[in-house]
Amino acid sequence: MRCRSQKTGAHLLGLQIQLSSRPGWRASAETVIRAAPGPVRRPPHRRASVGPADPPPETPEAVLPSTVVPGGVSTPQLSAHLAVPPVGEGPWPGVVVVHEAFGLTDDVRDHADRLAAAGYLAVAPDLFSAGGARRCLRSTFRALNRGEGPAFGDLEAARRFLADRDDCTGRVGVLGFCLGGGFALVGATRGFDVSAPNYGFLPRDAERVLAGACPVVASYGRRDPALRGAADRLDRVLTDLGVEHDVHEYPDAGHSFLNRHPGPITALEKVLGGGHHRPSAEDAWGRILRFLDRHLRTAA
Q: Which SS3 state, helix, strand or coil, does residue 198 take?
């Protein structure tokens, strides 16, 4: 199934963002290869540090491993980034990392690497594999709004990809940012063992959608104009449903405070009061890793 769209805009932070078809971030130029039988390991100089907020040092694109997640719905083979813990042979619990509207960027890969450094088998699938961000963004947002569509099948394929590996314990969580945060939140009732949405949009009928959800650790920024009140509402909904959760709103953070974007996006974020906020990001990563440890590793 190829993504089709006549328009290429998307609403982010209350603005109409027009996507360019010009080659840009590495995600649009990534070469897809089939997964090797065993774990695909990062070269030593690209392994993530265990620091909660500092990204690993950049290296040339050619040395970065990529893989394919089979069984996707939007396309039979999903381009993905696989990050394996650099120490030990496993098995490890897994985490599916869901990207923002900008696609599978270096920043998303770095988050997967950070999880691997903490002892998790992490895969970041490209939800735009069927046609790139220009073609797939609107259809992916529509799937999130409806709660059904190819993107959910793609995430289930990524979950199975990890759970079925010999080096995975079978317990798999989902973590996402913005668009991916919305998918991570809705995915809390779809086979994952823990959900970690970051500034994810809440479904209108959250009480129905989140009934029976797995444990949730969620992070929001109070200065995020698009998600005012979302943290309080999510906390109330999960409390009423009896779902174990840790929902926190950071007073000095805006949208995308855990992410690092290229220059033009960063400039726009600053105007809107968003962008990377190191103190909030460090605290959020600490909460996320403790929550994952309790519900993925210790529970296993």
A: strand
DSSP string computed for 114-176: HHHHTT-EEEEE-TTTTTHHHHHHHHHHHHHHHT-SHHHHHHHHHHHHHHTSTTEEEEEEEEE
164: left (phi over 0), alpha (psi -120 to 50) or beta: alpha
Give the separation between CA 168 and CA 260, rounded to whole angstroms: 29
Q: What is the pTM of this model?
A: 0.80
Tokens of 272: 């809107």
Classified as helix, coil or strand, 256 is: coil
CA dist list (Å): 270 to 2, 114, 130, 152, 181: 35, 25, 32, 32, 21
> What torsion do the CA atoms of 205, 1, 108, 83 make, to the nearest 10 degrees?
110
Residue 73 in contact with residue 153, Cβ under 8 Å?
A: yes
Rounded Cα–Cα distance for residues 163 and 38 (Å): 14
- Answer for the pair 110, 48: CB distance below 8 angstroms, yes or no: yes
Tens digits of per-residue pLDDT, 188-200? 999 999 999 999 9
Q: Which domains does the chain have, with CATH numbers?
A: 36-49+59-297 (3.40.50.1820)
pLDDT tens-digit series, residues 127-183: 999 887 777 888 888 899 899 999 999 999 999 999 999 999 999 999 999 999 999
